[in-house]
Structures are given as structure tokens and as C-alpha cells.
Specification:
Layout: H1 16-26, E1 47-51, E2 54-57, E3 62-65, H2 68-71, H3 80-90, H4 101-113, E4 119-123, H5 126-141, E5 145-149, H6 158-161, H7 168-171, H8 188-192, E6 194-197, H9 202-212, E7 216-221, H10 235-248, E8 251-255, H11 267-271, E9 277-281, E10 291-295, H12 297-300, H13 322-334, H14 337-361, E11 366-368, E12 373-377, H15 386-389, H16 393-408, E13 411-412, E14 419-420, H17 427-446
Parallel strand pairs: 3-13, 5-6, 5-7, 7-8, 8-9
Antiparallel strand pairs: 1-2, 2-3, 4-10, 9-10, 11-12, 12-14
């Protein structure tokens, strides 16, 4: 049985400096932090540095990192090839108003790997990538509407996030639309232009797309929606997405900002989806801000200015900045097909190990995910869509306890999001993840009210 080292755990180790910084942060930031996704119960861990697969916080505690800045750092922290390349570049300039060779080199790499991408455009974040992919679909089709998957996360563009914050109170009321605003004050007209579809439900897809088709520019889909459960797509559902989009002249936009890490060619290629446009980000920046929208050349022509003003103007002071381009190229060059295969093998062994522990104890948990991603659910059966993955308050508290227990064991496990692996991780690190989960289940079995408390 795994026994956590409480000298560095959430129960026993010092958090005094993190608490000190949190007090300072509360004087200058709303809630004391600058991202709503940062866990701050009771206070966030402030990080001093990263070393490979590990983080060291300001109090000197060492933690195995299963977050990797929300799946961005596929090589972990301080990846030397990227650090060396960026250090060399810093002396020669970090950003210019003119283009550089670096953006061409990264573009060529991505186009060579990702079947759906013939031309590409760089932006600064995943949110921007999704936003400009939607705008490109509108400019190409001359339609305003967007269809999207219920509960999936696509960044902070109004039309991409409407329908994300659904709950039983909404889906159990036939009089209410699932295209609910994600923040107070969002224009009501946004919801009128967004159609929300249940994942893996072909009947719901066909019915809703047919009724909204004349106004729809695109179907926005993450092939394995992370925030909505990291749920595997049914082949029949993805086939139906492609068929119905073609039937009505709607473009398919694949959000691979997170899931591009699922294979050498990305997640659409892995699952047989044939998108017209792809939004990318995270791993293609090598740890620096980045986003990209790519797709068929005829669609990407909406950005072209050869004959004057483009159908879709797109700029950005830091778009295609040399630092992100060089870091991204070096990081992606290191992600060979063999590297993706090794990372997937580690992911497979962890998912199998977690499932064996669940089966051994007859626990009401399950594991979803693929490649270098996994997510633990407090459910006895794997969910097939967001509604089945949705956590009621008791389940949400249980998952918070699980994350606290992992922290006690020296492992940073995202709460309510995908856990991810990096090439810096070893089999021993994977075994530690499985052991920490086994320990949680044993504590939970012995005393259901105290695990992770």
C-alpha cells in the first residue's frame, strides 16, 4: 500500500509563503488570482520553478505535475532544447512588426502533420484560435450561426462559450434553451445564434441541425471534449457530424487546442473526423502563448489581402512572435511519432492501473481519456456525454477530496479537468499515480468521510 510522505503533503508541509503571496495578491487582483481556473481552496500554491515532470513551490515542496499548465507542457518544465533555443533568440529580438522565417518553419511542420490543414494563421491563444475559426466559417458561408456541443469548453468568445454552463435545472426544463449565457450581461442575441447539441447523440444532432441549418456557419466540436468529461467519441456520431454538415453546406470546426496532443496528426485524424478548419494552441507554442487556425486553402483565403481588404481581417501585436514560433517548432520537432507512442503507452498503463484498482475494490469510479490524457469520475459507469459526466454536489466534493489526497501524496491532480502526462514522466511516476489512487480508495473504504480531508 502507498503511504504518502506527510512531510511534504497538504496536511503536513508548510504553505506559509504561498499564503503570504495570496494575501498580497488579494490586494491587487479580484479573489487574489488572475485565472478563474486556479485552485485557491484554501489558497493557491505559488510556484518557484519547474523541473521536468515536477513543480517546486515557494515553500520548497516538490510535486509531480499532472496539470502541465492545463495540458500545454507536453515535455514538462524546463525542456532544455526549448530553453536553449529561446535563450539564443532573446539576444536577437523577441518581437517585430515584420514577419520572420520562424513562423514559416512552424507552419510547414504543422501542415505536414495535420491532414486537414493546408494553410494556417497564427494568433496568441486558444480562445483567439477558436474565435477566428468561427469568424472564418462565417466569412466563407455568409451565415452567422454556430452549433456546439453541450458542456464543452472552447475559450472565452461569446458564441463559443454559450451553452457551456448548462446544468440539470436547465436541461430538465423543456421551456428553457440550452444556449444559456456563460456570464451575466451577455447579449441575449448570442443565444439566438447558438445551437447546442448533445455529444454522441445522433438523433439530437440531426434534429437540432436540421432546424437551424439555414443560419449555421459551422459545427464547433472538440473530438474528445475535456471539460465535458474527456469522453470518447462514438464513430457513428462523428460520421453523422460530417454527413449532416455536408448536407447543409455547414463547415466543421475542430477545436484541437487541447487534444492536438492525442497523436502525431492530432485528434481529428485519430478519430476519423474530417474538419474544414482546426483551431490549435497549447503544445504548439512550446510553453509560450500561441494559437493557430488552419484548414482548407479555399476557406483560409478569407484572411487573404492580395486583392485589397480581406473578407476577414486578422492581426495581433504578438501573433507569430518569434519566441513562440521557435519554442513551438523545437517542442514539436521533439514530438516524433515514437515520442507520441511512448507517451500513449505510459497513459495506457496508468489508465489500466487505475481501472484495476477500481475493479479490485468494487469502487464506484471510472476512468476516461486517451493517449496522454485521463480523467477520473466518481461514477460506476463511463459517461457518454456531458449530462452523464455532470457532478452533483456530493460527487464534486468527493473529487475535491481526491485532489487533496493526491496533493497529500505529492501529486498535483487537476480538480474537474483532464490530467495529462509529459515526456519527462517515468514509469515510476505513473506507478505513483496509481498508488496514490489505490491509497485514496482504501482510506475511503475504511472511512468514507475522511479521505482527503
Amino acid at each position: 500500500m502507498f503511504h504518502p510522505d506527510l512531510s511534504r503533503s497538504g496536511r503536513g508541509y508548510s504553505r506559509s509563503r504561498s499564503e503570504h503571496f495570496f494575501k498580497r495578491g488579494r490586494r491587487v487582483f479580484p479573489t487574489g488570482i488572475t485565472r478563474v481556473t486556479v485552485d485557491h481552496e484554501p489558497s493557491p500554491l505559488y510556484i518557484s520553478r519547474g523541473e521536468g515532470a515536477y513543480l517546486i513551490d515557494v515553500d520548497g515542496n516538490r510535486l509531480l505535475d499532472l496539470n502541465n499548465n492545463f495540458t500545454t507542457l507536453i515535455h514538462g518544465h524546463g525542456f532544455l532544447p526549448v530553453a536553449d533555443a529561446v535563450a539564443d533568440l532573446l539576444h536577437r529580438g523577441t518581437c517585430f512588426s515584420n514577419p520572420t522565417e520562424h513562423e514559416i518553419t512552424l507552419a510547414e511542420l504543422l501542415i505536414e502533420r495535420i491532414p486537414a490543414v493546408e494553410h494556417i494563421r497564427f494568433v496568441n491563444s486558444g480562445t483567439e484560435a477558436v474565435m477566428f475559426a468561427i469568424k472564418a466559417a462565417r466569412a466563407f458561408t455568409c451565415r452567422p450561426g454556430v452549433a456546439r456541443i453541450e458542456g464543452a469548453y472552447h475559450g472565452a468568445y461569446d458564441w463559443a462559450e454559450t451553452g457551456q454552463a448548462v446544468s440539470p435545472a436547465i436541461w430538465n426544463d423543456p421551456q428553457r434553451s440550452s444556449a444559456v449565457p456563460s456570464y451575466r450581461g451577455m447579449p441575449p442575441s448570442v443565444g439566438e445564434e447558438v445551437t447546442v447539441v448533445r455529444f454522441n447523440d445522433v438523433t439530437d444532432l440531426e434534429r437540432r441541425i436540421a432546424s437551424a441549418a439555414p443560419s449555421l456557419a459551422c459545427i464547433l466540436i472538440d473530438p474528445m471534449p475535456s471539460r465535458a468529461g474527456l469522453i470518447a467519441p462514438e464513430p457513428s456520431f462523428l460520421a453523422a457530424v460530417g454527413a449532416i454538415a455536408k448536407q447543409y453546406g455547414i463547415l466543421v470546426v475542430a477545436d484541437e487546442v487541447l487534444n492536438l496532443r492525442q497523436s502525431y496528426a492530432g485528434s481529428s485524424a485519430r478519430y476519423g473526423l474530417q474538419p474544414d478548419l482546426i483551431a490549435a494552441g497549447k503544445i504548439i507554442g512550446g510553453g509560450f502563448p500561441v494559437g493557430a487556425v488552419g484548414g482548407r486553402e479555399e476557406i483560409m483565403r478569407v484572411f487573404a489581402s492580395d486583392s485589397g481588404k480581406p473578407l476577414l481581417p486578422q492581426g495581433g501585436t504578438f501573433s507569430a512572435n518569434p519566441v513562440s514560433m521557435v519554442a513551438g517548432r523545437v517542442a514539436m520537432e521533439a514530438m516524433t511519432e515514437a515520442a507520441f507512442g511512448s507517451l500513449e503507452s505510459l497513459g495506457d498503463s496508468i489508465r489500466v492501473g487505475l481501472r484495476k484498482e477500481i475493479e479490485r475494490r468494487g469502487a464506484a469510479f471510472c476512468v476516461t481519456g486517451a493517449a496522454s490524457l485521463f480523467r477520473i469520475h466518481p461514477k460506476g459507469q463511463e459517461p457518454t456525454d456531458f449530462r452523464e459526466a455532470y457532478l452533483v454536489p456530493e460527487e464534486a466534493e468527493l473529487m475535491a477530496r481526491l485532489s487533496r489526497h493526491f496533493l497529500d501524496c505529492g501529486i498535483l491532480l487537476p480538480n474537474g479537468a483532464a490530467a495529462c502526462l509529459s515526456t519527462a514522466m517515468t514509469k515510476a511516476d505513473g506507478d505513483a499515480v496509481i498508488s496514490a489512487f489505490a491509497d485514496f480508495l482504501s482510506v475511503l473504504e475504511a472511512n468514507p468521510t475522511e479521505a482527503g480531508m
